[in-house]
Design brief:
The chain is of the alpha/beta class and 333 residues long. It is 51% helix and 17% strand. The chain has 15 helices and 13 strands. The protein has helices at 16-20, 28-41, 49-55, 64-70, 79-85, 91-99, 103-113, 121-128, 131-149, 153-181, 249-262, 264-272, 279-286, 290-302, 321-331; strands at residues 2-3, 8-13, 22-24, 76-77, 187-190, 193-198, 203-206, 212-217, 225-227, 234-239, 277-278, 306-311, 314-319. A hairpin with a 2-residue loop joins strand 12 and strand 13. Helix 4 crosses helix 8, helix 11 (249-262) crosses helix 15 (321-331) and helix 13 (279-286) crosses helix 14.
Length: 333
């Protein structure tokens, strides 16, 4: 069961074997699930609004009511989806795993997703169909993939591949502490314990040599998904770097509007910290001096527009929900 959200602490205790078995992947079905989560929340990030504007018309034939009932903006993602998305197969193989899901597991996991609230009729109907319901869900997910994700997959895949290359370099240069601490503000490493701040989740688990899987996600920002189910490695799904370069137009227009309010330098910095960046990285990308970038970041942090945390020897910066709101307003003109 993959929690998404805001902390009680999840603690994953890592041994030498777990560090050695830390590896990366990316998932077509994972992008489907993460994008559906955003749509269910009715708060599409300004980062992805150009994608949504280009995509929404093609979704009319897709049963979005069913998908919203299966992937709502709740604290959990149904484990049968997470399990399929974490497999190495392409989207065909991942959706085949969804179609073959155990009906009892589908029922149990959707009940857990909706615990505390009435389950919507489309989800109840899906459960009532048994094995046929899982096959129908796989077909609907295929329709969504074809309309919303597949047309952009080449570009999404490039961002995911670049993130994996960057993180592998971090692992080589700074070790596992630098790699894991830089994934997300909720993640920290203390000695051999990976700590993840999550509400309503108190877990202390020894990975016992099963290892750790790291999945970057384009549509995951700003969430962090964590999974540790029996029989498979612990998995973290985090926001990939470089997402702000994907759709371009909406972000640039919002940046230009914010420039009149904040100044062009600070607006440009906000555009570059959709995912975690260090002062040196921002300076290199913008062609500014590190002291100048550091000064602007201090102002933005005091204004509540960026947050910072330490990752090994570096301090990383990422924009806040307040900054996202400003970008959203600026993008709407």
């Amino acid at each position: 069961m993959g929690p998404i959200g805001r902390a009680v602490v999840i603690q994953l205790r890592m041994g030498v074997a777990d560090v050695a078995r830390t590896r990366f992947g990316y998932s077509p079905l994972g992008e489907v699930v993460q994008s559906l989560y955003q749509l269910s929340s009715r708060r599409v990030s300004p980062l992805h609004r150009p994608w949504w504007e280009a995509t929404r018309g093609g979704l009319r034939p897709v049963d979005m009511e069913l998908l919203a009932a299966v992937v709502p903006a709740r604290a959990y993602v149904a484990d049968f989806l997470f399990r399929a998305a974490s497999q190495g197969a392409g989207v065909d193989g991942q959706l085949r795993l969804v179609a073959e899901s155990d009906p009892a597991a589908v029922r149990h996991e959707l009940e857990a997703v909706w615990r505390g609230r009435p389950m919507p009729e489309p989800a109840r109907a899906l459960i009532g169909e048994g094995a046929a319901g899982a096959r129908r869900l796989a077909d609907v997910l295929w329709g969504y993939w074809s309309a919303a994700i597949e047309p952009h997959w080449r570009h999404l895949h490039a961002v995911l591949r670049d993130d994996v290359a960057y993180r592998a370099g971090q692992l080589t240069d700074g070790g596992v502490d630098a790699l894991l601490s830089g994934l997300h503000p909720e993640v920290s490493v203390r000695e051999a314990v990976l700590r993840i701040d999550k509400p309503r989740h108190s877990v202390d688990h020894d990975l016992a040599g099963d290892g750790l899987m790291l999945f970057p996600s384009v549509f995951g920002w700003p969430n962090l998904m964590v999974d540790k189910a029996p029989g498979r490695p612990a998995t973290l799904v985090y926001a990939a770097r470089g997402v702000g370069t994907l759709w371009g137009r909406g972000e640039r227009e919002a940046g230009e509007a914010l420039g009149a309010l904040l100044g062009q330098s600070r607006a440009a910095i906000l555009a570059h910290v959709a995912s975690p960046r260090s002062t040196t990285e921002i300076a290199g990308e913008l062609g500014q001096s590190p002291p100048s970038v550091s000064f602007h970041l201090s102002v933005l942090r005091r204004s509540g527009l960026v947050r910072s945390w330490r990752s090994g020897r570096r301090v990383l910066y990422q924009r806040t929900q307040l900054a996202e709101g400003l970008l959203s307003v600026a993008e709407r003109g």
